[in-house]
Protein: Probable DNA 3'-5' helicase RecG
Amino acid sequence: MSRLDEPLKKLVGDRTATVLAKSLKLDTVGDLLRHYPRRYAERGRLTDLSRLEPEEHVTVMAEIAKVTKRPFRNRRGNLLEVEVTDGRGKLTLVFFNQAWREEELRPGRRGLFAGKVGRFNNAVQLSRPDYQLIGEDDEDGVANVFAGALIPVYPAAANMPSWKVAQCVGMALDTLGEIGDPLPAEMRTRRGMPGLAEALVQVHRPTSWEDVAAAKDRLKWDEAFVLQIALARRRRDARAQSAVARPRRPDGILDAFDARLPFELTDGQKEVCAEIETDLAGEHPMHRLLQGEVGAGKTLVALRGMLTVVDAGGQTALLAPTEVLAQQHYRSIVEMLGPLAEGAGMLGGSEVGTKVTLLTGSMGVAARRAALLDLVTGEAGIAIGTHALIEDRVEFHDLGLVVVDEQHRFGVEQRDALRGKGKRPPHLLVMTATPIPRTVAMTVFGDLETSILAQLPSGRSPIATHVVPAKEKPHFLDRAWERVREEVGKGHQAYVVCPRIGDEDDDPKAKKKAGTKAAKKGARKRDEDLPAEAYPDDPDDIGADADGGAEERRPPLAVLDIAAALGDGPLAGLRVAVLHGRMAPEDKDDVMRRFTAGEVDVLVATTVIEVGVNVPNATAMVIMDADRFGVSQLHQLRGRVGRGSAPGLTLLVSEMPGGTSARARLDAVAATLDGFELSRIDLEQRREGDVLGDAQSGSRSSLRMLEVVRDEDLIVAAREEASSIVTTDPDLTEHPDLRSALASILDDERAEYLDKG
Structure:
């Protein structure tokens, strides 16, 4: 076992190792040494307190400006408030019943203060913080941390502040010795990079900013190069697989379909169709990402690929994440195919037709049995369905192409299960309207063949997007509901989207009352049953009051609450219906049918309408608590409007104040309709930590220094180096340290994830 693989308990003892593992997911010496500083403080300089984000665990350097002690009003005890400053901003440290700290926390002293950022009465604070005063003697030698010119500030946890992490890192560096280096010596010399051990010392104990820059460049190379080795080996293995070639056949169903199209394909659609056609004609499995703007015609492009496979004697399967979307795809594809959507020679069908079969989990026994028979006999050339398609009992006669819509909504195991139903590896086409971070990351890393549809078909209208600051300007929310009424008055329809369903509350009166207040003025509501994970994107505004109480951000607004409030209030008299995932399938289908037919004016829904729903007459969308959604999700949602000749309008309602990261995200969505640009923003904010599947496995990300958006040039160079090595030494027999590094980040679970993904 190498020094980097050594368990931390041998270095720091069982108790500290347990805290590091539970709080920061650090298990080995290598994990600890790759837990890099998030920033550096310069001795004598204070932290910029204006940049603190609520809910973040931070360590700040500041000077004590004022200390106040006062008793609680309604109970025994006291509150000690310590105001610290950097000369530009202020931060309040709050201690409960710890008046004795007043002796050491004196105005004029400087120190590092660590804790979880909260907010109370519009003031930023740390409640019950940990701290280390600079220059103070310390039996454990903590003050030695401050001996260097630059002080590393680490990502921390409540029970493991930055200086304790620094202590552990120091112990690891002091006993490190010689370690293997994944970068070949010839490459390091040619590119002028330091060795791994030297880079680790530079990043944790820098004496200058030049040390920091050199170390970061080298450590980014480690991550990019080792991952590129993994991807290069995967590309090599993929080229070794064989698939059934599905070349285009003239005078088949595809030609018949093209002949009945009432419009001409855009240039972008023609180009992507040609790329897919070339892939399908090859003898190796296609593995292509189709990234198309909302409304750019991805489904049409995918359908032409499916018809190519049907003409070549194979079957195709379209996997959709929800029943609403699966049914929508089924209806639209049957409508586009017309008489071609029947088996050849069937009454009313075409001589070159193929049957389209729908399979979902809610189907009755008889319908399900008939669908399964269509698939196993080959009667159906096109199967459309949800997760029901991947069940064990589902068999295909000859599955040649798998199309996965909104691929990020499926786990790797689900996608792989469907691909495994082919006698030989089927071709794979994954579609998304806005790439999620992993997709963008893998695209930048060059592992996917990518097609982009950026050109909208003629007849599509622009979508205007505006942020509605409901708390700062409540009359803007009133105006939003007026705009909805105006659109309905013109004969159009609207969506209202909420983050939550709302049936967790058993008190309908309380629910209706809270919903009315929130719909009108964005008021707060408390729901004790709501799990914190329901709104993970943005932190709660938590702060302690003088009595030790707390002010908490309310739970997200709910469909049932808002629908009732709107029907009785701002949208009274309009036909309002609800749609959410807990409704019975037949009820969901009935609501969508009535909305599509124009029998419903306003549809209040969860994100069940996020993808695939196509109602050209819907022109307006109001997204409540828009800050609870991600950038890509907001872009997907607004793609449901403006699908006809009338312009679309999307209103992003939020209570988050200006200047916060949440509002910055909303402003970014309002500023551009470029989905790919938004995906880059999403990636910059959320990073690319799941590129090796750690989101699925719960493992720590392998990418800690590298940023795929900012480091594209480095990644391209690393890919060239990795491809060269894999070509000459595919098993890495001549590069044992590189092989060990690859094994350390690519355990069996991640290797399987990468292979299937």
